[in-house]
Write a structure and sequence with these properties.
44% helix, binds NADP nicotinamide-adenine-dinucleotide phosphate
Length: 257
């Protein structure tokens, strides 16, 4: 399957996301920023969420310079997201576009690397809020808009530690297991009754601030840049992935060389 899919990814036409409306969380840096730049270059209209207004504005400027689309930026701390606020975001998107073609749930925090026995209670809640609960609230609020699309896509971001438990990865690892579970549950609920397709991608080791925090001793030059994963992300967001649903991918199997 991997080789076949790689061929399909390679064959994806230019402008494969032309006029699609896509929301990305954690779009101000790292992998989310790379996805924002890539999707904009492919013609998508973007709604970008991140914590830092300054960083989001820098992404806006880069997109304005390099493509013919203008994103909507939405600085918001997802740790404080509620269903009510998610519904307000959905309402704003509905007023502007009337539908949503894709969501990339990418924002995450690492939290402390320590044993479950010592894990700080508040930090556990913070990691769960940003990495998992915000995706739940946004999914609930955005589903009607995704159903209004011909090819709705929900792309979750996982991790190796969300597939096999690893000591000292604490709330982060548990949040990623739950993210895979949320993805699979949604895929099963929506696959037969809607056009929405749901996937998870584990980017694997990628050169970002989060990676440096997790592996401070590593030489960043030894780790691939986020842009290398974008052909897979683009394919999953496109209408070409309509025959798939509920899959978990390792980005390294599909990365551009
Ligand atoms: P990153 O460079 O640290 O970027 C994280 C992004 O999430 C930033 O845009 C950040 O916004 C945003 N964010 C964090 N907390 C937020 C909050 N409370 N509210 C709103 N936005 C928030 O991380 P990354 O490495 O690109 O990671 C992207 C995804 O890939 C994550 O889901 C991560 O778990 C996953 N992943 C990464 C690796 C890797 O090696 N890099 C490996 C496996 C999985 P600000 O910049 O504005 O704070």
């Amino acid at each position: 399957m991997t080789q076949q899919l790689k061929s399909r990814i390679d064959a994806l036409p230019e402008q494969s996301l032309r006029d699609k409306v896509i929301l990305i969380t954690g779009a101000s840096d790292g992998i989310g920023k790379a996805a924002a730049l890539d999707f904009a270059a492919q013609g998508a209209h973007l709604i970008l969420i991140g914590r830092s207004q300054e960083k989001l504005e820098a992404v806006y400027d880069e997109i304005e310079r390099s493509s013919d689309t203008r994103p909507i930026i939405f600085p918001y701390d997802l740790n404080t997201l509620s269903l009510e606020v998610a519904r307000e975001m959905a309402y704003a998107i509905e007023q502007e576009y009337g539908r949503l073609d894709g969501v990339l749930f990418n924002a995450s925090i690492l939290g402390s690397k320590m044993s479950i026995a010592q894990y700080p209670e508040q930090e556990w809640m913070d990691v769960m809020n940003v990495n998992l609960n915000s995706s739940f609230y946004l999914t609930r609020a955005l589903l009607p808009l995704l159903e209004a699309s011909e090819h709705g896509r929900i792309l979750f971001t996982s991790s190796s530690v969300g597939r096999k438990g690893r000591a000292y990865w604490g709330a982060y690892a548990v949040s990623k297991f739950a993210t895979e579970g949320l993805m699979q549950t949604l895929a099963d609920e929506l696959g037969n009754t809607t056009n929405i397709r749901t996937f998870a991608v584990n980017p694997g080791g990628t050169r970002t601030n989060m990676r440096t925090s997790a592996y401070p001793g590593e030489n960043p030059a030894d780790v691939p840049e986020p842009s290398i994963h974008m052909p897979l992300y683009r394919f999953l967001m496109s209408s070409q992935s309509a025959d798939l649903n509920g899959n978990s991918f390792d980005a390294k199997d599909f990365s551009a060389s």
